[in-house]
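User: tokens in, sequence out, please.
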């Protein structure tokens, strides 16, 4: 396939690299010149809209577009690219609901699948797979990508968009309790969690369920895990007003420097999923990965989940145009029955541990 990767930061670059390594022809575009110097196939362009208009002939030659740009611009990016009629896979964490672009996608015979990272993304695929089999009573997801050697005062580093990450502390965390939608404060106190791989972790409710909230499941929550001490630092920042709209740009710039994960800094990612059907035994999954060969676990799990879903989406018999979530795709009657197994196999072949318990 010819594939255009929009955004070649650490996750986008891993997607770009792996696609080319596996026989696809991928080109990338990024506004940060430092993200383009590793390959002649990555185009430096500071303005995505100008890139669109000046490179339109090149874009039209693509079979698939993967959007790995920050969430705060991704809705407008989808609006720009959907009229081309090229399949789009989106891994951004945009605040808007991409399904609002469904009519636009149908009009231009375009298929779009969004939230295709690890969480949201792979967790949606897992839940959707089990919804094909059972009526589900409860869904819980705890996920954390964290440095192996945390340093205060923040005890955290990341490779994701800082602006998107900050939203975890400013957005109310939507969940479901007894069938009703409830919004929790991320700073509400919750018991700590012990991860044998790294120690005691703080967990807090986060707003990652998104499209899953539309499912008929009475109990649902997503929680994020961080090193002990991180939440206290973030609460201090919030209480001091540094996460207010008037200060957020300055705070983002400062945290981008403090939380930057440099080359060679090791991390790990763990995601625990619990699914309880109305009848029968509970099902649990543990996804685990660590830094290896110069690539972080956060980049590996996000990039490989994206590629696995993208390949399945492109090959699917389902040619219904429009915008779909990962769970809607895996639950579609026209999606091949072995799609789920193929996605999991792709991840395990890459060395990511996926355990069903």
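Assistant: Sequence out:
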């Amino acid at each position: 396939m010819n594939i255009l990767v929009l955004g070649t930061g650490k996750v986008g670059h891993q997607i770009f690299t792996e696609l080319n390594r596996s026989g696809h022809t991928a080109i990338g575009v990024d506004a940060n010149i430092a993200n383009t110097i590793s390959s002649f196939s990555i185009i430096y362009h500071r303005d995505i809209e100008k890139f669109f208009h000046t490179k339109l002939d090149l874009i039209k030659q693509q079979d698939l577009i993967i959007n790995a740009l920050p969430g705060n611009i991704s809705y407008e990016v989808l609006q720009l690219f959907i009229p081309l009629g090229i399949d789009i896979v989106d891994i951004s964490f945009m605040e808007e609901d991409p399904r609002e672009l469904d009519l636009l996608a149908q009009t231009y015979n375009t298929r779009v699948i969004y939230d295709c990272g690890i969480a949201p993304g792979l967790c949606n695929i897992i839940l959707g797979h089990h919804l094909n089999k059972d009526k589900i009573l409860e869904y819980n997801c705890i996920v954390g990508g964290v440095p192996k050697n945390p340093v205060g005062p923040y005890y955290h580093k990341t490779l994701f968009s800082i602006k998107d990450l900050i939203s975890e502390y400013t957005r109310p965390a939507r969940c479901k309790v007894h069938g009703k939608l409830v919004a929790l404060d991320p700073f509400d106190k919750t018991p700590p969690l012990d991860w044998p791989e790294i120690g005691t972790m703080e967990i807090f409710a986060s707003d990652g369920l998104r499209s899953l909230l539309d499912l008929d499941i009475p109990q649902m929550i997503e929680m994020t895990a961080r090193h002990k001490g991180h939440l206290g630092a973030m609460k201090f920042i919030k209480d001091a007003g540094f996460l207010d709209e008037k200060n957020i740009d300055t705070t983002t710039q400062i945290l981008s420097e403090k939380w930057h994960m440099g080359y060679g800094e090791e991390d790990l990612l763990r995601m625990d999923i619990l699914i309880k059907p109305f009848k029968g035994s509970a099902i649990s999954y543990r996804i685990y990965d660590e830094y290896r060969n110069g690539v972080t676990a956060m980049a590996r799990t996000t990039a490989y989940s994206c590629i696995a879903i993208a390949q399945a989406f492109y090959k699917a018999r389902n040619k219904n145009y429009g915008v779909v979530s990962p769970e809607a795709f895996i639950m579609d009657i026209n999606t091949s029955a072995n799609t789920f197994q193929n996605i999991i196999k792709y991840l395990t072949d890459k060395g990511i541990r996926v355990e069903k318990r």
